[in-house]
Design brief:
Elements lengths: L1 H56 L12 H15 L2 H21 L8 H13 L6 E5 L5 H12 L5 E6 L23 H8 L5 H4 L2 E4 L5 H7 L4 E6 L5 H14 E10 L7 H12 L4 E7 L2 E6 L1
Parallel strand pairs: 1-2, 1-4, 2-3, 4-5
Antiparallel strand pairs: 5-7, 6-7
Length: 303
């Protein structure tokens, strides 16, 4: 009975209080609406700015993006530090490598092949491994973009680089067992393209770089470039097990004592022949010692 009598009174009191409550809620929500509007405007502005940045580093025209996460960079720093034995310099080297990669692709013709981690791992680790001399041999170059970036990184470390490239430069990228296809950049694989990119290195050695057209398995090609002991050898040519095995046998002959040998795409599931051939070669007795991996590149040291 008492409850029934109180209900009408409660409803009447609520009706009287409702305008006051609504005004109070409005006053309390007003700062939140202001903050929400400011946040919405800020997000819109950030999206506008991000669009311009993405034009520089997204995957358009190169097949892969250049936007590593903090976790990816941190992992790469640890790997480079472990491979080089110089963890105190690894972050600086990786960050510098990333800046070099972005600048090179922005100004160059074509692209650097591979993931951001793999490219930056190679660019960062090679100088930290202190090659015994500046003679560099790159087996397989695509557009010459990686070679140009490596010249800059090695020069930063105090070495005057002298570059030799071996590549058929046949108009498109060649790999056994794969069909030829148009490059995502639309750029042909030719010597004039490679030389255009090498000029961006800004090193005197870039202008005198030696390009030997042909396959690294060709005895005449080997003879033409076997006039020196190389302090750095980048093996990134034929990715078949037989091709990698043959390149490593050649490296045994031309690597200087203490040379840094980089085996690209080691551990990459798309190219199982690379690791298969390398592991077999190292197990059979070699003057090369596996130092470790950074991303999908193996780093070896010649004794």
């Amino acid at each position: 009975m008492a409850r029934r009598l109180l209900r009408p009174a409660a409803r009447a009191a609520l009706r009287l209080a409702e305008p006051t409550l609504r005004k109070g809620a409005e006053r309390a929500a007003r700062p939140l609406r202001t903050d929400l509007a400011a946040l919405t405007a800020e997000v819109a502005e950030l999206r506008e700015r991000q669009y311009a940045l993405s034009l520089l580093v997204d995957s358009t025209g190169r097949g892969t993006h250049r936007m590593p996460t903090p976790q990816v960079i941190d992992a790469l720093v640890r790997q480079v530090g472990a491979v080089s034995g110089r963890p105190e310099h690894a972050r600086r080297a990786v960050v510098t490598a990333f800046r070099t990669l972005v600048a090179q692709e922005a100004l160059g013709v074509g692209r650097l092949a591979g993931s951001t981690s793999n490219i930056c791992g190679k660019l960062a680790a090679i100088p930290l491994l202190a090659p015994p001399n500046g003679s560099i041999l790159e087996i397989g170059t695509l557009h010459g973009q990686f070679a140009a970036a490596l010249l800059r990184m090695v020069h930063r470390a105090g070495l005057e680089p002298e570059l030799t490239i071996v590549d058929p430069l046949a108009g498109s990228q060649l790999q056994p067992g794969t069909a030829g296809h148009a490059d995502p950049t639309g750029t042909p694989v030719r010597e004039d393209v490679v030389r255009a990119n090498l000029t961006l290195a800004g090193s005197p050695g870039a202008y005198t770089s030696r390009i030997q057209r042909g396959f690294s398995s060709d005895p005449e090609v080997r003879k033409a470039v076997a006039d020196r002991a190389y302090g750095v050898v980048v093996v990134d040519g034929d990715h078949s097990a037989d091709g990698v095995a043959a390149d490593l046998e050649w490296v045994e002959e031309i690597a200087a004592p203490g040379a840094v040998v980089v085996l690209d795409d080691y551990g990459d599931g798309k190219w199982p022949g690379v690791q298969q051939a390398a592991d077999a070669h190292l197990a059979g007795g070699s003057r090369l010692t596996l130092l470790g991996r950074a991303s999908t590149s193996a780093f070896l040291r010649a004794d």
